[in-house]
Every structure is written in structure tokens, then in C-alpha cells.
Design a protein that fits this description.
alpha+beta; Alpha-D-Glucose-1,6-Bisphosphate, Chain A, domain 4; 2 domains; six-stranded antiparallel β-sheet; 5 helices; 6 strands; 20% strand
Length: 269
């Protein structure tokens, strides 16, 4: 329940990510400041990293790694041949307090060169890098939202499975209650019959009376056992009914959240 509420809370605060826009920023690396294009999205770092990798792979680029960066070689930022750069992506959560917010920084480096402190010529690529990040925005948000939808679907499926189990348990408990109630009624009839038989027996038939009293003692023990089991199973059925009601409420909320996420995905298109 707690995990579900956390997921629901994060889902609600993630929606502003649809309106995220790229901007001119900077990135600090090895005591140097690099001009960079940046965008902030309200999804966790791992999901955003996977989204960037999936997007670039569809474009035909394989990732390499350099220090804190994911690097893609020979990436044209625009249709102009002169805009081709080595794209250095840094993808990190915004802060320890905002683990569900990720900042993507893109440093464009002149093709074939290593990452060095930027000069004026390098800085001229930033405007194009900002536009390039904007072109990725839909795919990043769409991928991340689909991952969230998949996770929410698992939550819904898990709740549905629990509801089915509770329903099956309810049927089993009700069946046992009917069975023990029938046994109890039969036991009481047997006691009444045996009591009548004892009243008709001769007082001199000590062996017969002893045997009859032994049977009635056994029936009374069984009665106590049946009554105890009936109380327990009825309490269990009541608890099962409460649990089913609770799970139904959780399911409706979770399923509603899933539908909201799906509608949110539609608004991205």
C-alpha cells in the first residue's frame, strides 16, 4: 500500500515534465566550466538514461563512455554538415532531495577532438545543441512515461491477482462454514436422540449407560470443536470481506492512475 501511494504521488508530480524545454546551461567537469545545452525532466536518472540510449540507437548511434559522459560520435545537430559534433551527454539526478528529477546536459565537441575547455568556436554549437535536445524531448518523455505505465500496469495486475485470491479464499471459507454448520446441526440431533435413548434405558444396564454417556461426551467435545471452528471461519470471512473492500478501493485508484498515465501519453503525440 505504501509503495503504491508513493508511486501515485510521484506520478502526479511528474506531469509538468511534458512542458520541459531545453535551455543554455553549463556543466562543471574537472574544475572547468563547459557551455552546454540542458533539459530537466521529472523522471529518475536510470529511466532517462535508457530513454536517451534508446533514442540514439534508433538513430543509428552506438554509445561510448568517457569519464562522466555517454558519448556519441559524428552526430549532426542540424542538416548542415558543419554541425556534426561528438555529443557528450551527462545524465544525472538533480539532487539527493530530488531523486526523481534528472538533468540532461549535452556538450557538443568538435568532431574528432577530445573534451577540452570550450573556446568561442565550440560555444557556437550550443544553440544547435539546445534545438537538438528539444527534438529529443518527446522521445525521452514518451519512453519514460511508457516505463511508468508498464510499472503501473504491474501494480494493477498485482492488485487484481490479490483480489482474485481473496475471492477464492472467500469461497473456500464460506464452504467450510457451511460444512461445519451442517456438522454442528447433525451433532445436536445426535445428542438429542442419544439423550432420549438414555432416558429409556434401564438403570440396571450400567454397561449400556456408560457406553451411551461416553458417546454423548464425545458428541459434546465435537460440538465445542465445531463451534470454535465456526467462530474462527466467520471471523476470517469478515476479515476477508474487509480486505476485499480495501483492495477494491486500491484497485480503482491504481487503475484510474493507469488510465491517467495513458491519457497523458496521448497528449504527448
Amino acid at each position: 500500500m505504501r509503495n503504491f501511494l508513493l508511486l501515485l504521488f510521484f506520478s502526479l508530480i511528474l506531469f509538468p515534465a511534458v512542458h520541459a524545454q531545453s535551455y543554455n546551461g553549463s556543466y562543471s567537469f574537472q574544475k572547468n566550466q563547459y557551455p552546454a545545452a540542458a533539459i530537466q525532466v521529472s523522471y529518475e536518472e536510470d529511466v532517462v538514461t535508457d530513454a536517451v540510449k534508446a533514442y540514439m540507437l534508433r538513430k543509428g548511434y552506438k554509445d561510448a563512455h568517457f569519464k562522466d559522459f555517454i558519448v556519441y560520435r559524428s552526430v549532426p545537430l542540424t542538416e548542415e554538415p558543419s554541425s556534426t559534433v561528438d555529443a557528450y551527454f551527462n545524465i544525472n539526478q538533480k539532487s539527493h532531495a530530488e531523486k526523481d528529477v534528472t538533468i540532461i546536459s549535452l556538450i557538443p565537441v568538435k568532431k574528432g577532438e577530445t573534451l577540452v575547455p570550450a573556446n568561442e568556436e565550440d560555444s557556437s554549437f550550443i544553440r544547435m545543441a539546445v534545438t537538438y535536445l528539444d527534438s529529443m524531448r518527446y522521445n525521452i518523455l514518451s519512453y519514460s512515461l511508457k516505463q511508468q505505465i508498464a510499472a503501473q500496469q504491474k501494480t494493477v495486475d498485482k492488485i487484481k491477482s490479490k483480489m482474485v485470491d481473496l475471492k477464492n479464499d472467500s469461497g473456500d471459507i464460506a464452504k467450510k462454514i457451511r460444512s461445519y454448520d451442517s456438522d454442528l446441526q447433525e451433532n445436536r440431533k445426535d445428542q438429542e436422540k442419544l439423550t432420549r435413548d438414555i432416558s429409556k434405558m434401564s438403570t440396571g444396564d450400567e454397561a449400556g449407560l456408560a457406553k451411551a454417556h461416553k458417546k454423548i461426551d464425545k458428541l459434546m467435545d465435537n460440538q465445542t470443536d465445531y463451534e470454535k471452528k465456526l467462530r474462527n471461519y466467520k471471523a476470517g470471512l469478515e476479515k476477508n470481506t474487509e480486505d476485499r473492500s480495501t483492495e477494491q478501493s486500491i484497485f480503482e485508484t491504481a487503475n484510474g492512475q493507469l488510465e491517467s498515465l495513458r491519457k497523458r501519453l496521448e497528449t504527448l503525440k
